[in-house]
Amino acid sequence: MQGFADGAVTGALQCTTPDDAVTVSSNPAPYRVLARKYRPRNFDDLIGQDAMVRTLSNAFETGRIPQAWMLTGVRGVGKTTTARILARALNYALPDGSGQPTVHLGEMGLHCEAIMESRHVDVMEMDAASHTGIDDVRQIIDSIRYAPVSARYKVYIIDEVHMLSEKAFNAFLKTLEEPPPHAKFVFATTEIRKVPVTILSRCQRFDLRRIESGMLKGHLAKICASEEVAVEDEALALIARAAEGSVRDSLSLLDQAIAHGAGRVDLTEVKSMLGLADRGRVIDLFEALMRGDIAGALTELASQYDAGADPAVVLADLAAFTHLVTRLKLVPEAANDAALTDIERTRGKELAEKLSIRVLSRSWQIITKGLPEVQASAQALAAAEMVLVRLAYAADLPSPEEALRMLRDGGGSIGGGAQGSFPAGAPSGGGGGGSSRLALATSRAAPMAATMAVSAPQAARREEIRLARFEDVVALAGEQRDIALKAALERDVRLVRYEQGLIEFALVEGANPSVAGDLGKRLMEWTGRRWVVALSSAEEAQAVPTLAEVARARAEERREDAKAHPMVQAVLARFPGATIVGVRDIVREVPPEAPLAEENAEVSDDIGLALDDF
Known about the structure:
The chain is of the alpha/beta class. The chain contains 26 helices and twelve strands.
């Protein structure tokens, strides 16, 4: 045989024998994608699943190992990988044959390599998406009786277990509850709600969490360092955000970004690859909209569209930035998120100080409602522009309460105060909507006159309302056509105390506790005065009858009085089986020339018998 020249040979090695010559190819090993190359091999390599690792560690150390686990979570968080690591931990043994089940897998064991490569005879993996029937489960049930060939346990890993049929699940029940001592099951699914409760109750369940963007970004940075790939920090932040908590998705995107940038991962190339608009330009667009500068906003959108940005992606980025500013306003510590870029952190904090929660929440609603329109439209750019128009024209509008107060006080612009230090008023760029809003803000005489003309009768009506008793409040609810509140006041309220401006009551069991708040708001609207409506928790309040109970008791009393009347008794005796179905007052006009007898008049005034109903 020819020797190696200088210790290395490239191309093909010629091996000669007395009879013939054999050519042995030295082709390089095929490329392994990052998602496979950096797949965790032990529990220490798993990221973001500390709670599960701690529980499993304690279970293995104390010997409390169940017969089955259920792993659930979104795509790419490590369900199948965790199942293989569990199989490795159950069958861990050193080359000399010693060892026991453990989560400390720093040293490769006798079966570890074969298990992680899915080629161990005692660790069976089945894809339930392609093996859904009862026959597939019956094969498992038949083989589970036999002892493992070389390992400690037979481990059955069933991926996407929710795809099994109903009959297959039912066939599993008995075996899953009482398997042989040498058998363990590990199930994985992304649709935990489709798994029957009878299966879940026989397993220990672990919900694998999405990986936080900051942790995912750090993980990608380590891999780039191992691969000796030059990478920009903001590019990794974009990839981590686009992965939405999935490690596999992030590694696939990183693999694609390395190929796209020819071995270098920079921000510009990642944006181009993902079809994202420049983050700074998205913030510029957001600021223009908040100022009401619709002409500048449309120009910026067109510029981003010409640069290759998808209009729907631009709107999605706007929504994400609106959410970020809202979080920074409510939770300033959110600025410490490692996944944020410097420009997002700095300008987001500035905008959070200027914008109100009302403006941000309204902007969020407009963008999220407009996004499906853009995605479904054949003219995505035009649809996106119309969403921006709605957003810009609504950005500095006050709430109805603020508008009425401004008009009533006779000062300030309609748009004032909504944007903090942003200039208020109509969006620039012309249009009928802007001029009408300016007219509303500047011509206060006519709106004030109209407001006074409308509100004067209303104020007079409020002055006429006199609520001397709680029954008057119930009657007012009926007059205002608030039938639900009227019914609740009659049926659910036990009155404890009533004064002008103060109502205290208890509620019957099971009543809606929002009755008090609803009543206070309605009384403020109806009377123009603030009422204090309080709930009482005193036990004696439960003995107070409701208006409905009082009405029922009064009706029963009238029924008994009517039943005791001699005329009614005579009628009941004349018609066996007849019952009193109602007692009502009858008002009759008595002619002066034919007065009724005193006793007949008394009966006519107090009792009405529905004889037609007998």
